């Protein structure tokens, strides 16, 4: 089979990519061989005749909403077999369920007045059956893949409209009874609160229970593998309930608006759980003032063992949460305590930390996730023999029992990838057509999330109510409280602590503890060094970082515990850059990566930048459909082809609360300032009241003149980090 580019086809309201597919359909003996009685499959190539068939594949590239909906009915005829799944997974970015359903049923699904191309002017029973089958196929896929689209309490208008259509056009069908059952199910679940998704909500506490600080004895009573299994159980329950379209950059980036406080509850729940695990780790280590250094070191060792058990269970979410907590400022600075941690366990911790190294846009964690996405068991490679023996023993026990594992990913990687895709690719192209190529890119990330959700069905974990209740009762320390307790535990180390901004790599090798180094800086998630990873502007972020802060963009509920600067030095702001998902999956996480410590796209579907580098992107000026000539997508921390992505935070807020903005070489200060205000949900008319400055270093800023060209005026040798500040 060979493929050939057939160019584009333009119709009224739609643009299609055409591919010619040449397939061998028959191999027969030639005339002379047939005279001798030979058969084609028994003769050498020179004595056979091959017959080929060329078919045309049309994939819609851009179109009006009407054309995109109509294409649901013609996609199979055009051999675009994945179109329905892509549309259903991403249409919420540009249309509502009601708008799509009305077009599908009223305009194209009316069996009496339909003007659908295949059956236009054909009143035969056959053509009616064809249309009915097409409509049924689309509706069945919709109910199978995105039934949550119809959850619209209390009226359920879309579901009732669909039910009415089925009663009139497909009475007594299996689909009619299915819709009736779905309506009944939704009504029974109506009492379920939005925050019911969060397994760690304090509202789940039994009456009379209060939040408390864990005692070391109670925590130590739980076996390491039990803790890991219960954290995995909670993560699995939440991850399986994630609605994929909630992760789209255009959806997730709107969560900061007041009217969207309940937007994407399934994603918020996973972020809340991630932060709860991170804060639980810190609370158990610092919560008890009376602990001796050796006792505190034992708790750190226990959490490292738990993290290792999470690795065996392929739970990368809790694994990353634990590693992030241990790398937080308040824990990382405990030099004397870390000196008491066993060397073997430190090596184990170092290996676990390296999984989330920011090198090449988190290439290690992305490749590992792809490798283990659908494998039955974890693939453990350890350079430390003792750790390898223990790991293999645990894995062998699992295999003997026949216990298969799914895979729980760190969702922040996908969120950043999707945010970056949303930032770098236009929603509409020339003529006001919806850019469906953008949706195909996003679906590559969404498909990975769905695959991992499916793998989670392999887990067979039983909840331990004793641990779950203990976990929910934990009182979480604020960053200020944890830092204060950390200073009380080891006050002398403070003079050697540097600002997180000075830390250039995410993972600080603990081996330096044995080298007598006096300077210890808490690791900070650095923007990736590859292609931009777009982050969402929120819990998942416009960029992504190691801790749940990756998720955090502007909501306090999403703020995770990561390295923080000393309260005494307010000038040293925390710079927790969420995972820069590579520009787009070359393919989600929406991620946001970049060349210089930011992420650039390199990699696979999980590599946010993966598919973008070779893709094309319409310019802001032309707005035309991308040409076939490959163009490099804009990335964070790198100027290319007259565009780049910058990060803008508001003065007075945490540096981690920033928005990714695409700029071109035509943009001046007023343009960029206005877009930054809109992204931060502020009045765009207040441009004159703000000034835009680029952060050069901790004590240097670049202030732009009123009408300066941002692209040419910025310092391209430092991070593309900007602050929007109200004028004095």
TrEMBL record:
Residues covered by the Ras-associating domain: 642-728
Residues in Ras-GEF domain copies: 223-492
Disordered: annotated segments: 521-548, 582-631
GO biological process: Ras protein signal transduction
GO molecular function terms noted in the UniProt entry: guanyl-nucleotide exchange factor activity
Domain of life: Eukaryota
Keyword Cell membrane attributed: no
Comp. bias (Polar residues): 538-548, 616-627
Coiled-coil region(s): none
SMART domains, per the entry: RA (SM00314), RasGEF (SM00147), RasGEFN (SM00229)
Gene that produces this protein: Rgl1
UniProt-recorded name of the protein: RGL1 protein
Pfam families with a match to the protein in the record: RA, RasGEF, RasGEF_N
Transmembrane segments: none
InterPro entries: RA_dom, Ras-like_GEF, Ras-like_Gua-exchang_fac_N, Ras_G-nucl-exch_fac_CS, Ras_GEF_dom_sf, RASGEF_cat_dom, RASGEF_cat_dom_sf, Ubiquitin-like_domsf
Low complexity compositional bias, start-end: 591-604
PROSITE patterns: RA (PS50200), RASGEF (PS00720), RASGEF_CAT (PS50009), RASGEF_NTER (PS50212)
Domain N-terminal Ras-GEF: 56-187
Alphabetical UniProt keywords: Guanine-nucleotide releasing factor
GO CC annotations, alphabetized: plasma membrane
């Amino acid at each position: 089979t060979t493929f050939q580019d057939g160019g584009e086809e333009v119709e009224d309201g739609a643009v299609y990519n055409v591919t010619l597919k040449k397939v061998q359909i028959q191999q027969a003996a030639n005339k002379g061989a047939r005279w001798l009685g030979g058969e084609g499959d028994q003769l050498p190539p020179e004595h056979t005749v091959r017959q080929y068939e060329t078919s045309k594949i049309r994939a819609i590239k851009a179109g009006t909403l009407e054309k995109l909906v109509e294409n649901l009915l013609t996609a199979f005829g055009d051999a675009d077999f994945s179109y329905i799944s892509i549309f259903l997974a991403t249409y919420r970015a540009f249309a509502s369920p009601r708008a799509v359903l009305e077009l599908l049923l009223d305009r194209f699904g009316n069996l009496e007045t339909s003007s659908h191309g295949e059956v236009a002017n054909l009143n035969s029973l056959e053509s009616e059956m064809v249309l009915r089958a097409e409509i049924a196929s689309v509706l069945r896929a919709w109910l199978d893949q995105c039934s949550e689209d119809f959850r619209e309490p209390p009226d359920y208008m879309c579901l009732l409209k669909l039910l009415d259509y089925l009663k009139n056009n497909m009475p007594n069908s299996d689909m009619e009874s299915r819709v009736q059952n779905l309506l009944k199910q939704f009504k029974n679940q109506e009492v379920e609160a939005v925050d019911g998704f969060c397994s760690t909500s304090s509202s789940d506490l039994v009456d009379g229970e209060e939040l408390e600080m864990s005692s070391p004895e109670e925590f130590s009573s739980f076996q390491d593998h039990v803790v890991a299994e219960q954290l995995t159980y909670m993560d699995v329950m939440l991850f399986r309930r994630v609605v994929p379209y909630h992760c789209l950059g255009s959806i997730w980036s709107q969560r900061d608006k007041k009217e969207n406080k309940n937007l994407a509850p399934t994603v918020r729940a996973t972020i809340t759980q991630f932060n709860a695990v991170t804060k639980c780790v810190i609370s158990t280590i610092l919560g008890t003032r009376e602990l001796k250094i050796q006792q505190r070191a034992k708790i750190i060792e226990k959490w490292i063992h738990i993290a290792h058990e999470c690795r065996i269970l392929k739970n990368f979410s809790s694994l990353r949460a634990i590693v992030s907590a241990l790398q937080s400022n308040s824990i990382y600075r405990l030099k004397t305590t870390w000196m008491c941690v066993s060397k073997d366990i430190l090596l184990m911790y170092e290996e676990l930390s390296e999984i989330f190294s920011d090198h090449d846009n988190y290439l290690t964690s992305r490749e590992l996730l792809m490798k283990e996405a659908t494998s039955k068991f974890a693939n453990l490679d350890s350079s430390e023999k003792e750790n390898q023996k223990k790991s293999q023993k645990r894995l062998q026990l699992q295999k003997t029992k026949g216990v298969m594992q799914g895979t729980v990913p760190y969702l922040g990687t996908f969120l950043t990838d999707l945010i970056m895709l949303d930032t770098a690719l236009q929603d509409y192209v020339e003529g006001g057509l919806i850019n469906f190529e953008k949706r195909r890119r996003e679906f590559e990330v969404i498909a990975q999330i769905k695959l991992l959700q499916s793998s989670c069905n392999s887990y067979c974990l039983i909840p331990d109510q004793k641990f779950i209740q203990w976990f929910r009762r934990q009182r979480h320390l604020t960053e200020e409280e944890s830092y204060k307790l950390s200073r009380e535990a080891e006050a002398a180390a403070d003079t050697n602590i540097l600002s997180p901004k000075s830390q250039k790599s995410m993972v600080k090798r603990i081996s330096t503890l044995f080298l007598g180094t006096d300077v210890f800086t808490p690791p900070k998630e650095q923007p990736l060094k590859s292609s931009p990873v777009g982050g969402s502007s929120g819990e998942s972020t416009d960029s992504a970082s190691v801790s749940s802060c990756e998720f955090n963009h502007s909501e306090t509920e999403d703020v995770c515990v990561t390295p923080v600067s000393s309260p005494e030095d307010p000038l040293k702001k925390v710079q927790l850059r969420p995972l820069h998902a590579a520009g787009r999956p070359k393919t989600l996480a929406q991620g946001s990566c970049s060349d210089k410590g930011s992420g650039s796209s390199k990699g696979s579907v999980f590599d946010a930048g993966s598919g973008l580098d070779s893709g094309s992107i319409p310019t802001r000026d032309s707005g035309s459909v991308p040409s076939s000539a490959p163009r490099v997508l804009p990335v964070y921390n790198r100027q290319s082809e007259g565009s780049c992505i910058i990060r803008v935070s508001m003065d007075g807020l945490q540096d981690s609360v920033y928005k990714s903005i695409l700029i071109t070489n035509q943009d001046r200060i007023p343009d960029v300032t206005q877009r930054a205000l809109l992204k931060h949900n502020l009045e765009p008319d207040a441009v004159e009241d703000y000034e835009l400055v680029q952060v050069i270093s901790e004590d240097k800023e670049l202030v732009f003149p009123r009408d300066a060209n941002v692209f040419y005026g910025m310092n391209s040798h430092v991070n593309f980090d900007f602050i929007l500040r109200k004028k004095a």
